[in-house]
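Lab notebook, bench 4. The sequencing result for the construct came back, and we need a structural model before the next group meeting so we can plan mutations. Quick request posted to the team channel:

Model the 3D structure of this chain.
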Amino acid sequence: MIQGLQFVPPVLVPSLGNVSVAEMTLPGGEWNWQAFETLLPCDVLLRIAAAKAPCISDYVGWECNVDSRFSVRSAYMVRWGISIDQSSNIWTVIHKFQGLPPIKVFLWLVCRNKLMANAKRV
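Done. Here's the predicted structure in token form:
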């Protein structure tokens, strides 16, 4: 647990349904108290009052990619347990390699599993 932060149990309010946090704020970045102040208990309202309203809108994103966009590559990396850092390091090393260009291409082919082996040729 991070020091200074405490777990706040979720509060289920059936009348709110699937409402995003962005729908509970005003364009100026303040909480829209009229939308939910009658629906929540006082202690929850005090916790909300202590938190600053977000200034960005909610969106659905793929957490396994830096830009939150889904890609087949990122899904493949998650599936096989490859972290983006590991993959990025390999390509950075190849990119910065100071040898002959054919060796750089060879390293790239090895890392992509694209070398034509005798078994694949037949």
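Residues 84-96 form the longest helix (13 residues).
Will bring this to the meeting.
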